[in-house]
Each structure stands twice: as C-alpha cells, then as structure tokens.
Amino acid sequence: MDAVTIRTNTQARLDREIQGDVSVYSYYPYQIISIDFIKSDSRRQVFINECPELVIVDEVHSCAKPAGAAKRQQQRYALISDISNKPDQNLVMLTATPHSGKPEEFHSLPGLLKPEFETLDVANSSQAEPRELAKYFIQRKRADVEKWMGEDTPFPQRDPGEIDYKLSNNYAVLFDSILDFARKLVTPDKLEGTRQKRLHYWTALGLLRGVMSSPAAGIAMLQNRMSNLEVVDGDSTTDDEDDPIHDIDYGYESDLAPAHVVDQAEWSEYQRKQLRGFANQLEELKNPAADQKLAYSAMIVDDWLKDGLNNVKVVLTGLVRRPLGRAKVALFELIELFCEGRICFTVVSTNRFPRDQSRRVSR
Description:
Helix content: 40-55%
Radius of gyration: 24 Å
Low-confidence stretches: 228-260, 316-328, 347-363
Number of domains: 2
Strand order of the largest sheet: 1-2
Shape: extended
C-alpha cells in the first residue's frame, strides 16, 4: 500500500503532482494525515467532503467529546462526528485506552457509530442493547490473541519498576539556574494577555523537561531556537492546544523534549545569552560522570548482561522532530559504553525516516 503523508511541508509538492482541479484528499487513495493538521478551519470541510470512503482513526480516545472546555479535543470530536454523519461513510476507530475513567467521554466514541450508544448504560441495560453494541465494538486483550488462528503469540511478562537516581552536582546547579529562569518567564506582572501567559507557561515547562530529559536533548532544543529553525511539520501551535506538551490526564506523561514549544517563544537578547550559556553547560554534562541518568542506565544494563540476559533491547522513544539529532548522540554514548555487540538498539519515532536517515540509524 503506497500511502502519501499529507502535512504542511508535503501538501504543496503533492498538489503539483496532480493534473486538473482535484484536491489531494480525493486524488490519492491512501493517505496518512495528522488530525491536528486536518481539523483546522481552512482544511476540515474540504476533507470531510472528499475524504476516502474508509477513514481509520488511530488513538481515537484523544477525539472523545471532552467533559470540560478542551478546545483542541472539541475540534477533533467535531471533525470525526461530521465524518461519521456522512452517508455511506466507513469509519474504524482504534485505541488501546478507550476509557479514561470518564463514562461520558467513553460513551461519546461508540456514539459516533450509532447515536443511541452515547446514552447507553451498559450496566443497567437489557441483554439486547449490549448485543447490539457488540456488533460495532471489538475488544481484544492479550489472552484473546495468544492462541489465535492456530498460532502461538507469546507476550513478554512485564516486570515494571522505577530506578531513582541523584543529579550530579554540576547538573543540579544547572537545574537550579534553569528553574530560576523558568520562574521568571511566568512572573504574572510581566505578562500581558492570555495567549502570552499560556505560551510562557508551556515554554517554561517545556524548557525544564527538555533539559532534564538528557544533555543532548536539551542542547538540541536550545540550539534549534537559537538558530531560528522552524518546526519541522508546522502542523500545530500552542494557540489552540490545551496541552502542547502532550501529556494526558490519566497517566503516561510524556518524556518528550517539547522543542516545538520552546521554538515558538520570543526571547530578548539577554535571554538568548542565557540560553547559550545553558547550552554550553549542557555540553559539559554529556558524559556518564555528570549525567547520572546515563550512568545508572549503563549500570542496570550491565547487570542484566552479567545475569545472562543477553537479548537486551534499548528502545529510544519520542524522537519526534529531527530524529537523528538526539538519537545519534544517545546511541553513540551507549554504544561507547557497551561496544561488544550485545545490545540491540531500536529507534522509535512518530515520523517516518527518509531513506538516507534510515540507513544512518541502521549503521
């Protein structure tokens, strides 16, 4: 299936490849589109009118009708609702976390398939109503697919745990400096207007998270801003986002370095000088002696290897923008520590790698 990715920095090229007065949404049979890209007022109605006959919505829990005034989620729900109301439209909604603990939000999802499902009280309903819902709602747990179609599908047993680590002295000093910088960003008497307050709040949070993710992530985030680099996909801003950091309200907080939030902030010359100083300090912390998170990770993996766990997979996740920049540094640091070929590295990204970058990651 040769699908095209439609977003800000690809749509113009795709438009040029089309002959005649036809939109990309009706011309290409297989499309991959971010819902935050297509829900904008300038695009949504064209897409609703001309979208393919089958629309698959992944992570559809983010499109549930919000109980509060979550503007971005309201726009997502409105878009999917309009698509589902089209005659002869086929809609498949996928999620591994359909229920956030808020029944009204959960019920809004099957309600997109059949309006009466939105008010269905499964616990107190007759047998006929859940049976009708079962025609549309398919749930598969691990136990359901471990032995499916005559094949065994073993799943690894999770052994969850958290490992605490202490910041090195130099890292702690840098953190205190950045925390002080972030606090000054959100000083109430220096901000004017709701948008500026929101942007400074998310910038402060994004700055702290990026720097604490790793020295390499912090450097990449700061250097991107100081070089005035644009956001790669350009599909969203903090203007209409309730949480541009992309945490969710029922756990699984993101550990991404939200460079796109810091990129959008406007800095004074003095603040730019401070950011350059932070980047220089982070450069000196790119070693296991100063970066205790890296050192502790190295010790844990080394213990696993000594215990005979020779199939260790290190997964680098959340490399959303410019994936090689941060991934390359983290990979090289770990490979230098364990260069005996005993570790399998996997890079997980929400962006598809261009072919040349895929080859570089493989090497």
